[in-house]
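Before the break, one more example. Copy the sequence into your notebook; we will annotate it together after we see the structure.
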Amino acid sequence: MMHGLQGIGMTSLRTRERMICRLIEQGISNDNVLNALRNTPRHIFMDEALASRAYEDISLPIGCHQTISQPYIVAKMTELLLGSAQRLTKVLEIGTGCGYQTAILSQLVDRVYSVERIVSLQQKAKERLSALNIKNVMYSNHDGHFGWPEHGPYEGILVSAAPPEIPKMLLKQLTVGGVMVIPIGNANKQQLQRITRTQNGYRGEELESVMFVPFLSGTT
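Here is what the structure looks like once it is written out:
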């Protein structure tokens, strides 16, 4: 599966560059985020049958009723997480999934702590990230509602599934000044939110409508 990291035809660097031009037109302006997406072969994070569609602005199935988010959403959430910072020290990712968002974060964060409830998905993600020689990610297979408090607090928390409300355990694992980017809602309506921890509590912003898989409990 891991041959063809550079890609050819519809998975080539030229196709990836068209994706970057589209992201700029959609309002993504952080050069570090754009470069991370430019440098990451999205096609290796999905089945070969779907690889030719990897650089379209759509979400695609990755198995186990999960999806890889569209490039715009990956870029937008990463840009929101970084804010004005060039780089973050420590970020918690809830939902490793196929590992694509993890790969993007790994280029912009000193250490990524990635939690996934579906062990088979996370194992595939590990293999892909290893093939890309990414070594600054730690993985755990457990229920994302609990976060990963042993390694907190975190400057950033990125959640790639939608709970009906913000898990309180995750809020507690943010540093003061830290940011959580998370979709909130149900199967019919979700809003992407940015939550900032302040000295006195939390400040929330609703940003745009999104559609993510539900945030489920337990492990498989």
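The chain has six helices and nine strands. The chain has a mean pLDDT of 93. Try to locate both features in your own notes.
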